[in-house]
Design brief:
218 residues, alpha/beta, nine-stranded mixed sheet, 8 helices, globular, binds NADP nicotinamide-adenine-dinucleotide phosphate
Length: 218
């Protein structure tokens, strides 16, 4: 599978690109926004697309034109204001979905956040101090569910840089707990390789069940 990774220079994105490159089943198109990131990846033999999510849908679609799947793992991060949350976590995600449609790519995996599906019902998530972030994630996921794309929505808990365990817990609703970024990257690839995950949205935290096994239970 040719996988366009949106947010390829991010912390999950870097694990994901490395794991895709190590796999003999996939090729990567790493979407990054800075020239030095492009150079670093190309030195590692990774195909790249230099695109900022604030550019047009057409530009993103052009990056996706050889892809079989798009993974959205970008985010404006905790250091920016609500304006960037809106432009990247919400608008950037939806533009990526529209770009996938324009490029004829059906498969789309998004990295969301644990519990954000309950945002609209509760208007409050006790562990999340940024309401714009929760709202952006909620509406991006809602758009994807209504898009007609073959989607998977992974809602991980608090991300850590602990070493991977290869084991997670998934369910519609989970307690807010930690998960290593590396395990999220593995779960993205396992989702791409398992069509049972199409049309599914789930919380995910560290757990006891091997990732491929747990996805079979969805
Ligand atoms: N932090 C948590 O505990 C947590 C929990 C659940 C879910 N999540 C979600 O998990 C996802 C990935 O997390 P992470 O830790 O890997 O995040 P990260 O390290 O902050 O990576 C985010 C990536 O998005 C890219 N990005 C930001 N603005 C962009 C733009 N205008 N155009 C193109 N790319 C842009 C960044 O590019 P640069 O490298 O150039 O800055 C970065 O590579 C995010 O969606 C986050 O919201 C986070």
């Amino acid at each position: 599978m040719n996988v366009l990774v949106v947010g390829a220079n991010g912390q999950i994105g870097r694990h994901l690109v490395r794991k895709l490159q190590e796999s003999d089943k996939h090729n990567t198109i790493a979407m990054v926004r800075k020239e030095e990131q492009k150079t670093r990846l190309e030195e590692q033999g990774v195909k790249t697309a230099l695109v900022d999510l604030e550019e047009s849908i057409e530009t993103i679609a052009n990056a996706a034109k050889e892809a079989d799947a798009v993974v959205f793992s970008a985010g404006s991060g905790g250091q920016t204001g609500a304006d960037k949350t809106m432009l990247i976590d919400l608008d950037g995600a939806i533009k990526s979905m529209k770009a996938a449609e324009q490029a004829g790519v059906k498969r789309f995996v998004i990295v969301s956040g644990i519990g954000v599906h309950r945002w609209h019902a509760n208007n409050h998530l006790e562990w999340m101090d940024s309401s714009p972030y929760a709202a952006a994630k909620y509406y991006a996921d809602a758009w994807l569910e209504r898009s007609g794309l073959d989607y998977t929505i992974i809602r991980p808990g608090q991300l850590t840089n602990e070493p991977e365990t290869g084991k997670v817990t998934v369910a519609g609703d989970l307690e807010h707990k930690h998960i290593p970024r590396e395990d999220v990257a593995s779960a993205i690839i396992a989702s791409l390789e398992n069509d049972r995950t199409i049309g599914k949205a789930f919380d995910m935290i560290g757990g006891e069940t091997p990732i491929k096994e747990v996805l079979k239970t969805l």
